[in-house]
Amino acid sequence: MTKKWTWELIADTLIKEFQNDKYTKGEKMPSENKLAVRFQVPRSEIRKAYERLKELGYVYSMQGYGSFFSGKREKIRLSMSDESFSKKMREMGLNFETRNVGCRRISGDSLIHSMLDVDFDEPVYKITRLRILDGEPAAIHISYLPEDLFPRIAEDGKTLTSVYDYIHSCGYVQLKTANAQLTVSSLSKKERTLLNVKGYAPCLVLTCKCVTLPAGTVVEVARTIYRSDKFIFQL
Fold first, then answer.
1. 97-133: string of b/e by CB count within 10 Å (b at 16+)?
2. Domains of the chain with bracketed CATH
3. pLDDT digits (tens, 9 = 90+) for 75-99
4. Tens-place pLDDT, residues 180-206
5. What is the reported pTM?
């Protein structure tokens, strides 16, 4: 059976060829016509694949000259340790910043309330931060905090950039990550906008709880969305 090529599969194939050193940095990429013939697809599919590779930083274009290979991109290795994202970035000497992009009370989310082990009518606040590496959006970090444990969260949450540090400042010092789950998912429209990704883009999603020791009180449910072209997890 002949393989049916889509622009997503073509982009993935070219990335594998980049990783296998089939191209050298600065080398001119094949034209859309040549790749259309190679993969037996319309030029529009090749154009979409090249747009995806540009978004990921593998390819750049020069008007009138074509597309060129930018060079292999090394992914940032992250471990699922009980440390803040900011601390991990500082220890690796990376140029990063965090922007608070939202704080709001959520209602009617039975899953989050259940994970936090609080009553359904208990106020819970969703704090969203955008992680930026070398001036480029790289991850979205969402934290859910119950108001009964953090009475000032409605106001404090508007400016928080490190929820990990905030939890410590509220007296919860002995902490442990629990029920961590790492999955691969696609981005929503809002997430694509925040991460400045225009086309199809798989992402790594880490969901976990932050609990106190030895009591085991759940103080936070966190959901972090990482661009899969920038990060790789060490399990």
1. ebeeeebeeeeeeeebbebbebeeeebbbbbbbbbeb
2. 7-69 (1.10.10.10), 76-234 (3.40.1410.10)
3. 787 777 777 788 888 887 888 899 9
4. 998 988 888 899 889 887 666 678 899
5. 0.72
136 and 196 in contact (C-beta within 8 Å)?
Answer: yes
What are the tokens at 148? 């009964």
- At position 96, the amino acid (one-letter code) is F
Q: Which amino acid is at 67?
A: S
Q: Identify the residue whose tokens are 């594998």.
A: 16
